[in-house]
Amino acid sequence: MDFLQKVSQTATIIAVAANALGTLVVLALVAVVNYDAIARGALNRPFMGAVEVVQFSMVLIVFLQLPDVIRVNRLTRSDGFLILIGKRWPVLSRVLGQILNVIACVFMLLVAVAIWPEFLDMLETRDYFGIPGVFTAPWWPIKLVVFLSASLCCLLFALKVLAGQDTFPTPADSHIVD
Fold it and tell me: CA–CA separation, 68 vs 78, rounded Å?
């Protein structure tokens, strides 16, 4: 159990750090959008590539913050059914919750396995997105973030299953904590 605790602590540190990095990407995105709006309106000189930066940033934000969202059990989903049956049949609710964690773990593993060859291809070919001469960026950083995020999410779901954690909030836990 000591090994699982160390793995869990390491995964937690990485998830929190990725979430913080995702927050910095949000702040950078706000700066880019504000700059584009001011430059477009006041100077009639828009930031060329603002759309591409927004697209790039949105993927980064989602995949950088997803592992921490999973870690703290705030993944958006409908678990009303499990809460409802949990009042009467708590063991059934926990078992169904763990089954869903296994399915989510497998899904994240499939995402990681599917994106890895794409990452290697984009790294090798130096493929990019955007408009040549206006704004371009390489694809490989996005593919790498998706791979690492999906891998970490898979690990987090696996840890939840191995630890037997009930990942669905009880009615008492359903309030929002700030």
Answer: 19
